[in-house]
Amino acid sequence: MSLQLRRVLAVAIVVVLGASSALAQKGSAKKTADEKRYDVEFVFDGTSYLGTMTLNIAKGKVSGRMAIDRPTGVTGEVAGTLQKGTLALDYAYQMAGENPCAGRVTVDAKMTPDAASATGTAHAEGCGDPADGSFTLKKTKTK
Question: What is the pTM of this model?
Fold first, then answer.
């Protein structure tokens, strides 16, 4: 077998092993994640921002995704903690639209013991003047 063919085979094996490992990790992450889907509402300066949050809550750590679709698109990778019923989030967001921008939102809310809902305050910076408002989270009803 030529040296060049051996190199091609070695590279192919590394690529296949890497892809298999990545797929195994992705699959195992899905199996262990306890994702919950919520309807979310932020209210800043009289404007409601409505959408969804998908949260993973494990050992006091919170992660997930936010997707606001009304009145404009806003997305973010949610990060924070849930300790003794207090939901504390602090994460970056990106706003679409005519004047796209990015910023940061923080949330301080009380979550029900069954993790079905939370209410509290929110603070947003980065897209215009800083704004204080309210935060409401309700577990999405399955159909």
Answer: 0.74
pLDDT in tens, 93-122: 999 888 899 999 999 999 999 999 999 999
CA of residue 87 relative to chain centroid, distance:
14
DSSP 8-state class, residue 60: T
Q: DSSP E strands: which ranges in the chain?
A: 35-44, 47-58, 61-70, 74-83, 86-95, 101-111, 117-126, 128-139
For 124, counting Cβ atoms within 10 Å of its Cβ (0-12 exposed, 13-18 middle, 19+ buried), the class is buried
**Residues of the chain whose pLDDT is less than 70?**
1-33, 142-143
| Residue tagged 């509402």 (tokens) | 41
Strand pairing of 35-44 and 74-83?
unpaired
Torsion angle defined by CA atoms of residues 89, 35, 47 and 109, in that order, rounded to the nearest 10 degrees: -40
43/41 Cα distance (integer angstroms): 7
